[in-house]
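Problem: given the chain below (187 residues), write out its structure.
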Amino acid sequence: MSRSISREDAVQMINREVATENLKKHMHAVGAIMKELAKELGKDPEKWCKVGLLHDVDYEQTKDKHEEHALRSAQMLEGKLPEESLKAIKAHNYEYTETEPDSDLANALIAADGISGLIIATALVMPNSKLEEVRTKSVLKKFDDSSFAKNVDRDKITYCEKLGLNKEEFIEISLNALNDINDKLGL
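Solution.
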């Protein structure tokens, strides 16, 4: 049976393995959203937060090798996170890893990964480029504008529906989570 690393150890691992500040911010954003989703759904907030924090720990090593992304993260985290967490991390890149998202944890990670990018992109185009200016309505409008933040996969954001949440509820939870860690995000 694997033990689970502490949140502090997860943050240390990010700082050791990830050099890009924006990638670190993304990982913290996904971790915060995952934690809030877990609270909303009656799941384990610490477990979900760590999955969000660590899902892209291999990204700088695998960004040009899509078929290895997430598989390498899971290898790096073997024995540090429970098997369900490793499977969710692999499933967030299911197109390449052939690990289907078949749990709330995996579906939440896929949705959180997508929405974090859309919310941050929305914040950056606000009049003062501040997260506190972003409202659910503005994110919904940007969701429907396919020319905005083209690299954000809207279909993945809709994985929130597999958790019993509509887009509006999911965006609201995600916005609250990101506002709670805005000191880390610097928006």
